[in-house]
Specification:
The protein is mainly alpha-helical and about 250 residues long. It has helices at about 1-20, 30-35, 90-100, 105-120, 130-150, 155-180, 180-190, 205-245, and strands at about 35-40, 45. Strands 1-2 form a two-stranded antiparallel ribbon.
């Protein structure tokens, strides 16, 4: 019974609202859309101004680092055809097919590696020296950096890049200790900035600080004890010398 009474009350209120909305003149549509107040039979009310959804502006692309392959001219022949004399005198269409204009990224990277190796190798047959290994790792690291700038969520290539950086650090450290002049020339020709690693890598925590303070305190106490023992031994030796010197 109570549910029927509530249902009838809701229906009456909705019918009244529809009648009041029908009584609004059409001339007030512009006023309603502009957000102005309107006074009708049931009182005055105001509608909010319509929200205009404009198109979102295009985001500006962030300019990344310059590619290491940008200095390779497109007319240069691929690595496999540079030593072929017939490739220099062939037709223009064939020469274009053999040039870097239609080459893949891996072919361009291989040519860039050879250019970096030629800058630092000791002689023409040198392929296993530390300078050559540093040049190969440098080309690989820069290629990973360009890739990660576009695909920053590629965790696998990021891990490979960090492993290559650590390996290059080891080779540069070894080269710096053995042949410092070669180390300087490699850094200059390849554009590498060598930074010294920090002296200590351990993370500072409260536990580590407390343990360090305890170790320092123990060390000082041990040094005091050793100093007292040395002084006692010195006094005993001096007393023994005085006893032997006296008649």
């Amino acid at each position: 019974m109570f549910s029927n009474i509530a249902l009838r009350a809701v229906l009456k209120s909705s019918v009244g609202a529809l009648r009041e909305s029908a009584a609004i003149p059409r001339t007030c549509c512009s006023a309603l859309l502009s957000g102005t107040r309107f006074s009708g039979a049931s009182g005055s009310f105001a509608l909010p101004a319509p929200v205009r959804h404009y198109a979102r502006t295009a985001r500006k692309k962030v300019a990344g680092p310059e590619s290491q392959l940008s200095d390779l001219p497109p007319t240069m022949l691929k690595l496999d055809y540079t030593a072929v004399p017939l490739a220099q005198t062939t037709d223009d269409v064939v020469k274009r097919l053999l040039s870097l204009e239609l080459a893949s990224h891996s072919e361009k990277l291989a040519l860039k590696k050879e250019q970096l190796i030629a800058k630092v190798q000791r002689d023409e047959s040198d392929r296993d020296s530390m300078e050559v290994k540093v040049a190969i790792l440098t080309a690989r690291i820069r290629n990973f950096q360009e890739h990660l700038h576009k695909h920053h969520k590629d965790k696998a290539n990021k891990r490979r890049m960090l492993m290559a950086i650590d390996k290059r650090k080891k080779w540069l450290k070894k080269l710096r200790l053995e042949r410092y002049d070669a180390f300087e020339s490699v850094c200059q020709h390849l554009g590498i900035t060598y930074t010294f690693p920090p002296e200590y890598y351990r993370r500072v925590t409260r536990r580590w600080l407390a343990k360090k303070a305890l170790c320092i305190k123990v060390f000082e106490e041990v040094q005091k004890k050793k100093k007292a023992e040395k002084l006692k031994l010195k006094q005993s030796t001096e007393a023994a010398k005085t006893q032997t010197a006296s008649p």
